[in-house]
Amino acid sequence: MSRIQGIFTPNIVPLDSHGQIHEGELRRYVDWLIERGVHGLYPNGSTGEFVRFNAEERRRIVEIIVDQTQGRVPVLAGAAEANARETIEACEHYHSLGVRAVAIVSPFYYRLSKEGVYAYFKEIADASPVDITLYNIPMFASPIEVDTVERLAGECPRIVAIKDSSGDLPHMMRMIAAVRPHRDDFSFLTGWEAALMPMLLIGCDGGTNATSGIVPEVTRQLFDLTQAGKLDEAKDLQYRLLRLFDAMLYSAEFPEGFRVALNLRGIRTGPGRQPQSSLQQKDLSELKDQLYGLLTEQGWAQDLPDEDQIAKIVRQVLQDLESQGLQPR
């Protein structure tokens, strides 16, 4: 099977006024992303708030997305559960759906040693019927060291890729140097779009980037420009994308800034499952204006709703919040 390449979107999951998965809007969102050029979809990622859904909901999210894609793009399904046994069961289920691969985050909550991380992934890989992407996100989970990646890649044919969200360029280079000479089929994906262009230039195959769920046409263009060697254009686009990324990431608790921006692009996300105080809601309302201005300034507003439509979206969000007892006062 070919190496995993391109931009895979870790999609937000739209919720209805009762806080349940909004299947119709999720299906519309999938089509919207594919029409705008994403290479693949990555349900149950961090941006998709997988820890805020139960196991049955996580499976349903993947089922909906696989069904809606209809083979148009590959699906990389987040399969991390609370322990190795349940994670293997998720791998088996997602394999039955026909996903390209699963992504499994390193163990979280309990900080494991290097040997513990190795043993965890080795047990899953030996039992999994589907290809596996390691997911390194050291800010939230036990880190996956370079020699652990090299060891797992050498021993486990099912482990075919790593997604690294550290944003650490030298770390990525060390992984590529250690693994690629022995596993040409192994993919390296960056989860840090602030450095997407330089990551591609040092040998990454693509990314799983939250911003691709908001401006998928822009991240696709950045990938294409870099791959084509049009580096001046790519560099300019990377710096422009950085401004949007920073505003969404650092102006609100993750991933609320991305949820606000996606609403501005016409996808009704509903409120997230993490309760928000009235002060937080006020900050998000101000962020909406900032993001609208930024998207317009950067020329990424071709299909943004007009002011009347934005007001309608905001009213609906407030109604959704009120129905959950979260109306700011």
Structure report:
- The protein has 12 helices and 8 strands.
- The protein is of the alpha/beta class.
- It has one domain: Aldolase class I (TIM Barrel), CATH 3.20.20.70.
- Strands 2-1-8-7-6-5-4-3 form an 8-stranded parallel beta sheet.
- α4 links the parallel β4 and β5 (132-136).
Question: Helicity, in percent?
Answer: 40-55%
Query: CATH class, please?
Result: Alpha Beta
- In the CATH hierarchy, what is the architecture at level 2? Alpha-Beta Barrel
Give the name of the CATH superfamily: Aldolase class I
Content of β-strand: 5-15%
Report the C-alpha radius of gyration, rounded.
Answer: 19 Å
Tell the overall outline. globular
Count of domains? 1
Helix count, DSSP H or I runs of 4 or more residues: 12
What distance separates the N and C termini? 55 Å
Mean pLDDT: 92
- Low-confidence runs (pLDDT<50, min 5 residues)? none
* Strand order within the widest beta sheet: 2-1-8-7-6-5-4-3
